[in-house]
Structure formats: structure tokens, C-alpha cells
Amino acid sequence: MNPYEDKLHEECGVFGMYSIEGHSVAKDIYYGLIALQHRGQESAGIAVSDTDGSMGNIAIKKGMGLVSEVFTKADLSYLYGNIGVGHVRYSTTGGSSIENAQPIAMNYIKGSLALVHNGNIMNADELKEKQLHRGQAHYTSSDSEVLAYEVISERIKSNSIEDAVKKASLKLKGGYACLIMSPRKLIGIRDPYGLKPLVLGKRQNTYILASESAAIKTVGGELIRDIEPGEIVTVTEDGVLSDHIPGAEKCAHCIFEYIYFARVDSVIDGISVHDSRIKAGRALARRYKVEADVVIGVPDSGLAAAEGYALESGIPFALGFHKNSYVGRSFIKPTDEERKNAVHMKLAIMENVVKGKRVVLIDDSIVRGTTMRQIIEMLRNAGATEVHVRVSSPPFLYPCFYGTDVPSSGQLIASEHSTEEVCQTIGADTLGYFDLKDISSMVDGLPVCAACFNKKYPVRRK
Asked: Under CATH, which architecture does the 267-454 domain have?
């Protein structure tokens, strides 16, 4: 995580389409990636092909920046093909550079493929060592390249791309969702624990695979279902085929999809993200009662939890901030002072909402505490008489190994300080964190991974 940021980040978002009727898919993939932009803002890419073989090689365009910055109308016209995959990236493994942007496209003796990947392959270094010994990989290969090389290695020995993908998947350890485009097939894989989300949708005779259901809706499609943990789905001209790699004993879906990562209008593993955040706010109100005049949420993911807190407590809910959606990302600002002022550029206090009021402030997390401290200062400067902070996640104590950019424990304020000390550091009147005991009710009993809170890692390093 960049030292100047105080939010967690999901590593990537993936989106793929296969038009059975032969329509070009690049423009729809573009809009799908726009809908997944919150999952990664460092780079974006699209790769397409034509299943009738008329194109020959895969057409690909990728670059640094937001989706709207990377692609022009001319690019989307050039990217003609009825099958394709797209990607938005926030780097956790590998640096922020064009070399690490996806999709990864490769030619090999039996054909070609393009791959996009979300998550973290924990044993990538081990796999890379073997690939280097075979003369296949190079020392700077990313997780995604390692995965692509593994598929190619198996494809040379297999009768089909599906068999190769399954054999390669058996070697992987970690949390991941991956899309692979071969000349005539679109394949989706989800890790055996279901740590990373992946959903299947359809629009007329076009199949869609994406990180979130909101992206499917954006292109006019309908959600069919979630890809099951450990499932491999293959889309061909005949429809969708399903296979499975051996599953884990139990699933462990990432709890932070519901707290923060996913768009509020997404449904993941049958659970509405909006409903889960409302329930989190209600649970906070039950555990931490306070006399106050107004409840406000930090945009965007704190808003639904703030609404839930207000519904449960009876304290009025109001929009306390104006969010400037056109401010550049703080980590590319050229000076420390500009980085420090990034919060002021992105958020403006609605002074008429908070002046002279006792405020309950809801946010999804406190990582280092620097952003929260600035927001509280802004509220007090705007006339808030009290600021009571409620956080819709438990205290962050441990790092994540599955593709979420959680800093080391030493950089997590709750790991080094008690709740009272954190409260004093950020300048709040009171502070209350979401209780681990309430997580199950927040997601209707869905089995989740909460290792960053409780150190119970479903997949462990050797």
C-alpha cells in the first residue's frame, strides 16, 4: 500500500464476454470495466479475438490510468472481435507499470491465449522457479504471467484448453478469479475457497463473466449465478459447461467485499452488498448508543452503513459531505503537501448539516488513522460540537495474503494501539468498531474470511 493512502484496495477487476452471434464485444467490455473501476485505477486493458479465425492474432490494448484515459473511440473500433477479456488493476504484487498491466496475451505452439486475473497466487514464486528451470518464465514474471505459463505448459500436453486449465488450477494456492480467452472459448476459474468473487451473466445470446453483478447490469445483461468456489466454467458456441477442481472443506468469501470493495448495487454469493452494509450500521447502533443530532457517512461505502445506523438509532441521517469525483488519485500527486491535502480536495463538508451538531460519523475502516484524523478536524472546523466515530469493520490487526492490499501489522493503527488510544489519536469524542460477533448476521451466515481481523487464514503459507 502506498504510504500516503489510508484505504484498503482490492487488487483487480475482471470482465469477459463471448457473443455467440458474432457481434463485437470491445465497447461492452469497456463499459463493464468502467463499472469495475473502483476495483483498480492504475491500469486497464482489453484483449479480443474472433472465434471464426478471421483475425489471426489477438488484438490487445492496455495502458496506465483510468479506463476512460486508456481507450479512445478509435481503439474500440480497432479491437474488433466477438470474444474478449478486460481488466482494471491496482497493484499489490508487482510494481505500478505498463509491464504489469493486463491482459496477458501469449502465443504458443498450439495457439494463443489472453488472461486476466484478480487476487494473489501465494505459491507463484515456487511455480516460477520451476518455469525458469524449464526456460519458460523470466525473473520479472508477475502472478498472472506465471499462471499463463502454467496453462500453456499444460496445454501442450492436453487435448483441450479446459483440461489444461484444470491441471494448472490444481497447482495454484491462494485466492483468485481468472478469465482465459482462447481462440474459441472463454473460461472462468474461481479459487476453491471462493475468496475472490466471479459471476456469470447473459444478454440475449452473449455470455458475460465479471467480478461483480453490477458490471453485468451496466451492459444490459442479467445475472445468472455466482461461479461456485473451485468451479471452472467454459463458454463455447454451444453454451456453458461446468467442471470443478477439488474444493476446500469450507468456503471463505472475503468479508471486505461486503464492507468496502464491491459496488453497493452488487449482489455477491447471493448477498446484497447494500443490505449487508445496512445491517452493519444497525449492529453498530445497537452496540454503541450515543446522544447525537445527525448521522453522516464518509462517501461512498460509509453511506449505507450510516443509513443503517440512523434507522436503528432514530437519529436523523444526512449527507454531510460533497465528494469531488474529478480529483486525481492522491498517490500520483507530486509533493507531500499535495498528498496531505488530498482529503480536502476530494471531500467538502456540508457546513449547514454539521454546524452546532453532535455528529455520528460512519466510515468503513480505519487503517492508519491519518485520513480519519483529517476528516474530524474538518468537521470541527465546520462547527460540529461533537464527533462520535463508528466503524463498520472490526479493527485491522493482520495482513492479507489473498490480493487485498493490507499493510503490515506495524502500519495498522489498531495493531499498535488500544481503541481508546486510537480515539485520542484521531481526535474523536468516542470510537466504536464493528464487533466480530456480528459478522455472521451481516452476511446471513455466509462463511467468510476475516483473517485481517482474527488471524484465521483459510489458506496458509508453507
From this structure: 3-Layer(aba) Sandwich (3.40)
